[in-house]
């Protein structure tokens, strides 16, 4: 496997609706009426692939989007409704050839058995380009869509209290269990389990299939998977975090963590915290990429980018703020910022285009060439799998190792 | 005046994980790689088939406490494969078997609605149920559904999913860039469902899909299953593909429709059917015999006998006589994760019957399993098979067939190239797709049309 030089940055693009600014759909380039068609998503992924980005993420949720943290907002002036992210990724996989496809899955309400085989299948369909972004949902109204658990209302101040932190930890512990089951199921078939031995009439060597025997607080799963081990062995696992509890999930269970530093010092502190958690979890030797998340408005001049944000803010009736730093400026300025953050230990970035129809082409046509000129980005895809693009080896099967030990 | 010719519906069942599928044949390819699915789907579309059909099983089968290793083992995730197939086909319907026991309505409804959007209106759902704790060991909810509750759960699951599909009407999204109104009103997708199985409320988050709802398939066999299908399915995936049994099933199910205010054309009967083609009928018969021998190896024959005997028979010689010992009658069964063992209700009587058959015909264990197993539905030259299929459909055995080839992925190719043109010549099968959605292919009305007709009448 060839791999990119260490000086290269990794780039992911986060796809969500018409873009991350809530008024993005009102831009002439936005195509909001096509949001629920395959062609819309195929076009975005093709554009990102032209820019040689490592992968796209696709946002998802088990309720209508809301500008409020924990409840529906009753607004009719923003994009509402979405398609299942795993199915969007799979629909696009045969139409693309190198770019990674990383849909969001909600650990809180889904079956790890289903998610494991869905992402394994996405990996087969894309011949080794699949991943997942695991997310929790503590929202009471989303729990009501399933009717199996009732969650108390979310109060952001209360979430910072010890009781709130405990509640958050429970959700993330469940997500960690979910990922553990998903990962074990991916390994539950050894790579050479299918033997097609005509002499004995055996299709598989069943000694190479493994019960995973997971027993946790929230669920138990026996295994093995119904789907053989996917091409990458372990598709990419990623998660977004803003504080210690999710950083722990990133350190323990993921290959890529998305974080939201506001400045260099912040980036340095976050990376240090994740590395310490990684050490504590006994994963110091594993590669865990830490990507910085940024919302981007890219234009030819800083003034044009800032003006565009102002115009969209006015349309939306208020300044857009979010968890991630909002960048407005030129591609060269953004490249400067990425290099500055990278110096603090970030190995890549997940860019959230403010307006997909505008800022995604700016990433591929302006930012990527700028980074290439600086020797900080690939000039051609150097690997056929997503793990390969990220410099991650195909992992040994945990059960095969156990058998030969 | 003679009855007008019925148009035949044809579908392609991707070869499954039982011994119908001959994996040992040199032509047999992968059951997992996407290229196999794409080949199979493109063949079906080239032949102007109505849809592709995927079965599902959520736990690997076991026999005698070990994973069953003689048949194809393993398959991909149904939704994910169907979404990818939507990218490599344009017209073919995409039917997935999805279990109502180990899923939740909100999630399944958004997956089917998403698939329908992403395929431009080609999604269908074969609703099945399970109750076994064996499969439940792979899931959060476990396997505690009592057998007599499985239909009530399935019914309520489907009813709930329909409420979710119908929670958007299709006119909610304005996306008016000038005025800034994206939604017509904030309550889009609102639903409340309160029942014994599901107590859920809120807002569904996938807008109305092209077909309104996916096409609904059922596999009802029991009286209760047939009523369920008559009340709420668009098509039945049945196993009655012979003349007498097919006609009886067809008449029975269609006669149940009137009491639900439905016309006979609103529920299609589509049995599974296997086939073997040859240049001549005699050659096809010879090939069919060889295929049955491939399907039933000595080892497979012993395992199939174990389904009835419910004992470990591994010490018996498959080329020798049947066991003298009687079947073990027990609640515990040697085979797990397999639906067909439920078919043997009186194993002692079956064993007696089989011993007599074997003695009379001088059959070994393997001969017996080959000869009592399902013969291929259609065997003959392309002309014979085309005529038989047409005759069966015109005689109301069915409205068409879901064909199950025994070779992956090329097992449909010859049928597409030889039988389909003959059916087209007979004027009973389309030469081009006339519509874009699966409902169009099947001649089923859009749910909104049905609703407005009922309001008007």
Automatic annotation (TrEMBL), chain A:
GO MF terms held by the record: monooxygenase activity; oxidoreductase activity, acting on paired donors, with incorporation or reduction of molecular oxygen
Residues holding FMN: 60, 104
Source organism superkingdom: Bacteria
Signal peptide: none
Ranges of residues in domain Luciferase-like: 66-315
Pfam families, per the entry: Bac_luciferase
Record bears the keyword Oxidoreductase: yes
Keywords: Flavoprotein, FMN, Monooxygenase, Oxidoreductase
Similarity field: Belongs to the NtaA/SnaA/DszA monooxygenase family.
PANTHER family in UniProt: ALKANESULFONATE MONOOXYGENASE-RELATED, C2H2 FINGER DOMAIN TRANSCRIPTION FACTOR (EUROFUNG)-RELATED
Protein known as: FMNH2-utilizing oxygenase
Automatic annotation (TrEMBL), chain B:
Lineage, broadest ranks: Bacteria, Bacillati, Actinomycetota, Actinomycetes, Kitasatosporales
Stretches assigned to the Luciferase-like domain: 26-396
The protein's name in its UniProt record: Nitrilotriacetate monooxygenase component A
InterPro entries: Diverse_substr_monoxygenases, Luciferase-like_dom, Luciferase-like_sf, NTA_MOA
Organism: Streptomyces fuscichromogenes
MF terms in GO: monooxygenase activity; oxidoreductase activity, acting on paired donors, with incorporation or reduction of molecular oxygen
Pfam family, one: Bac_luciferase
Keyword annotations: Flavoprotein, FMN, Monooxygenase, Oxidoreductase
Family named by the database record: Belongs to the NtaA/SnaA/DszA monooxygenase family.
Binding annotation for FMN: 97, 151, 222
CDD domains xrefs: Nitrilotriacetate_monoxgenase
């Amino acid at each position: 496997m060839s791999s990119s030089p260490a000086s290269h940055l990794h780039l992911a693009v986060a796809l969500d609706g018409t873009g991350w600014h809530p008024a993005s759909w009102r831009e002439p380039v936005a195509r909001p009426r096509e949001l629920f068609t395959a062609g819309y998503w195929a076009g975005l992924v093709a554009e990102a692939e032209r820019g040689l980005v490592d992968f796209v993420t696709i946002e998802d949720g088990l309720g209508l989007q809301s500008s409020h943290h924990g409840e529906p907002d009753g607004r009719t002036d923003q994009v509402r409704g979405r398609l299942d992210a795993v199915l969007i990724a799979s629909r696009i996989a045969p139409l693309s050839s190198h770019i990674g496809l990383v849909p969001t899955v909600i650990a809180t309400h889904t079956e790890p058995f289903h998610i494991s085989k869905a992402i394994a299948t996405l990996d087969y369909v894309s011949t080794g380009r699949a991943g997942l972004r695991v997310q929790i949902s503590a929202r009471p109204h989303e729990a009501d869509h399933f009717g199996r658990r009732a969650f108390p209302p979310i109060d952001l101040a209360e979430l910072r209290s010890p009781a709130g932190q405990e509640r958050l930890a429970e959700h993330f512990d469940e997500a960690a269990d979910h990922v553990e089951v998903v990962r074990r199921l991916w390994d539950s078939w050894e790579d050479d389990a299918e033997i097609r031995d005509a002499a004995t009439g055996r299709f598989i060597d069943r000694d190479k299939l493994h019960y995973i025997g997971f027993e946790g607080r929230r669920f138990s799963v026996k295994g093995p998977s119904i789907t053989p081990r996917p091409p990458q062995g372990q598709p990419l696992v990623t998660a977004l975090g803003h504080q210690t509890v999710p950083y722990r999930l990133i350190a323990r269970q993921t290959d890529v963590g998305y974080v939201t530093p506001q400045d260099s010092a912040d980036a340095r502190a976050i990376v240090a915290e994740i590395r310490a958690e990684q050490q504590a979890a006994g994963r110091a030797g594993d590669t865990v990429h830490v990507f910085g998340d940024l919302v981007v408005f890219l234009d030819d001049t800083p003034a044009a980018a800032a003006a565009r944000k102002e115009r969209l803010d006015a349309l939306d009736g208020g300044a857009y703020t979010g968890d991630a730093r909002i960048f407005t400026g030129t591609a060269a300025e953004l490249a400067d910022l990425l290099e500055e953050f990278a110096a603090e230990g970030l190995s890549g970035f997940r860019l959230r285009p403010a307006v997909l129809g505008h800022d995604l082409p700016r990433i591929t046509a302006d930012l990527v060439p700028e980074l290439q000129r600086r020797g900080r980005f690939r000039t051609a895809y150097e690997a056929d799998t997503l793990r390969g693009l990220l410099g991650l080896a195909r992992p040994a099967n945990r059960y095969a190792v156990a058998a030969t030990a | 005046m003679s009855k007008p010719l019925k148009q035949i519906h044809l579908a392609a069942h991707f070869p499954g994980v039982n011994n119908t599928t001959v994996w040992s044949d040199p032509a047999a390819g992968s059951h997992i790689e996407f290229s196999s699915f794409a080949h199979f789907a493109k063949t079906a579309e080239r032949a102007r088939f109505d849809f592709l059909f995927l079965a599902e099983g959520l736990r690997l089968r076991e026999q005698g406490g070990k994973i069953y290793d003689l048949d194809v083992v393993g398959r991909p995730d149904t939704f994910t494969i169907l979404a990818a197939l939507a990218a490599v086909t344009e017209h073919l319907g995409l039917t997935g078997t999805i279990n109502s026991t180990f899923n939740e309505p909100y999630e399944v409804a958004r997956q089917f609605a998403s698939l329908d959007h992403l395929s431009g209106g080609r999604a269908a759902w074969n609703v099945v149920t399970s109750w076994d704790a064996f499969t439940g060991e792979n899931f959060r909810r476990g396997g505690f559904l009592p057998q007599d509750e499985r239909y009530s759960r399935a019914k309520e699951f489907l009813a709930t999913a329909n409420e979710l599909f119908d929670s958007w009407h299709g006119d909610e999204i304005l996306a008016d860039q000038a005025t800034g109104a994206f939604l017509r009103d904030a309550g889009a997708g609102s639903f409340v469902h309160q029942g014994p199985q599901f107590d859920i409320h809120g807002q569904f988050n996938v807008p109305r899909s092209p077909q309104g709802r996916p096409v609904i398939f059922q596999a009802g066999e029991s009286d209760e299953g047939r009523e369920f299908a008559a009340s709420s399915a668009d098509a039945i995936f049945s196993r009655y593909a012979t003349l007498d049994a097919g006609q009886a099933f067809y008449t029975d199910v269609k006669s149940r429709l009137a009491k639900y205010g439905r016309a006979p054309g609103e529920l299609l009967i589509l049995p599974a059917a296997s086939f073997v083609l040859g240049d001549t009928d005699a050659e096809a018969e010879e090939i069919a015999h060889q295929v049955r021998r491939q399907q039933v190896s000595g080892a497979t024959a012993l395992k199939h006998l174990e389904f009835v005997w419910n004992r470990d028979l591994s010490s018996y010689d498959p080329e020798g006589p049947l066991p003298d010992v009687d079947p073990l009658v027990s609640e515990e069964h040697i085979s797990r994760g397999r639906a067909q063992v439920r078919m043997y209700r009186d194993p002692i009587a079956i064993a007696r019957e089989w011993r007599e058959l074997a003695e009379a015909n001088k059959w070994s264990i393997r001969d017996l399993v080959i000869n009592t197993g399902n013969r291929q539905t259609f065997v003959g030259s392309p002309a014979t098979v085309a005529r038989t299929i047409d005759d069966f459909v015109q005689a109301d055995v069915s409205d068409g067939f879901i064909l199950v080839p025994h070779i992956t992925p090329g097992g449909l190719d010859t049928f597409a190239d030889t039988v389909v043109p003959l059916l087209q010549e007979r004027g009973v099968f389309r030469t081009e797709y006339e519509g874009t959605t699966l409902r169009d292919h099947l001649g089923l009305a859009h749910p909104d049309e049905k609703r407005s007709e009922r309001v008007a009448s």
